[in-house]
Every structure is written in C-alpha cells, then in structure tokens.
Design a protein that fits this description.
The protein is of the alpha+beta class and about 190 residues long. It is about 50% helix and about 20% strand. It contains nine helices and eight strands. It comes from Cnuella takakiae.
Length: about 190
C-alpha cells in the first residue's frame, strides 16, 4: 500500500469523503523524511505543517521552569503529528516537536489545508471530527495525570500501547507518565498486565 493509500485508510473510520474530496485532500500531502533527533518545530515557532507518520517515532515536549524536558505526547505510525494547537491557531508553539528515530511522513501546510477547507465543507467536517478525537484523548490523559497513581499510569500505558516499551527510550516514557526514571524501572520489573 502506498503512503497516500495508508492516509486514506486512516481517514475512512473518521469521516467519509466523496471520491473528488478525497482526491483533493490526498493531493496536498507530500513525502518528507527526517533523521533521528531532528527538531521539526521549535518552541516559539508557529507550526506550519500537519504530518501523517509513516515510519519512526516522534515526541512533543516542553521545558519546565527548572529546565527539565516534560514529554507531552508521542506519535508513531499511523497517526497525525505536529504541534496541533499552534497549527490550528497559527500562533507560536509552547512545545518542541522532535524525531526520536529516523522518520518518514506525508505532510501538508496550513495554507494548503486552509484552501481545501474553503472549497470542501466535508473536509472541514473531517478535520473537526479528527480534532474532537484528539481532544477526547487529551482530556482522558489529563484525568490520568491528575488522579492515577504511578502504577495505574504505567498499567494504563501498557494496556493502551504495549509496543511503546520497545519503541521509545524508557526515560521519555517516564517523563510522559510524570514519574521519575527509577520508579519507572521498578514498575517495569514488577507490574504484570493480565
């Protein structure tokens, strides 16, 4: 399956587009590749691109007042990537988006997507539904961070995405869960999902 077909398959469960709309939507996505540890979006820059991940792992993080990196989200195949709030509002990002591994994407610019939205209201509906699913995930994650114990956060991660243990360095997973690396290591050795 070629990259544009993979994007199309990803979109089908979100919202159906007519063939003309899908063709126009897919036409604005271009291949883009990056090496490991490449910054795609710097804090303070406005996100100009929306990415569809074909290969690799990326993370979005912010710097705490003490200068530590706090991981917000990971992206990997097949999902959208980019600093969503900066992209949608075209305001400076408060986050850094970087590749953790060599990565390949399809990407489109804000300008290209904006032009499509003016011509195809059904693509606007697709974007709205996709954004709603992202918001749902963000709110669920906020509850986890606020109320779950370290072990519950760890169990939830393993239930939802067990493959990340092999994809993402554990120090970044610990940061994502809001726990220190030593606690993460203890949980890794003691928690069983059954």
């Amino acid at each position: 399956m070629n990259p544009h077909q993979q994007l199309q398959q990803f979109l089908l469960p979100i919202h159906a587009l007519k063939s003309e709309e899908m063709e126009a939507f897919l036409a604005v996505w271009e291949p883009y590749t990056c090496k490991r540890k490449q910054v795609l979006t710097q804090s303070g820059e406005t996100e100009r691109y929306l990415y569809f991940v074909l290969e690799g792992v990326q993370r979005c993080y912010c710097l705490t007042p003490a200068g530590a990196e706090a991981t917000i989200v990971f992206t990997y195949p097949y999902s959208f990537s980019g600093v969503a709030d900066s992209f949608l509002t075209q305001t400076p990002s408060g986050y850094v988006l970087e590749t953790l591994t060599a990565s390949s994407f399809l990407r489109t610019s804000y300008t290209q997507l904006e032009q499509l939205l003016h011509h195809y209201p059904n693509i606007q509906t697709l974007l709205l539904k996709a954004t709603a699913f992202v918001l749902k995930g963000v709110l669920e994650r906020q509850v986890e961070l606020q109320y779950y114990s370290a072990e519950d956060k760890f169990r939830t991660l393993l239930r939802r995405s067990p493959h990340v243990l092999n994809l993402i360095p554990h120090k970044y997973l610990a940061s994502y869960l809001g726990i220190d690396p030593a606690t993460f290591s203890k949980l890794l050795g003691s928690v069983r999902i059954g």
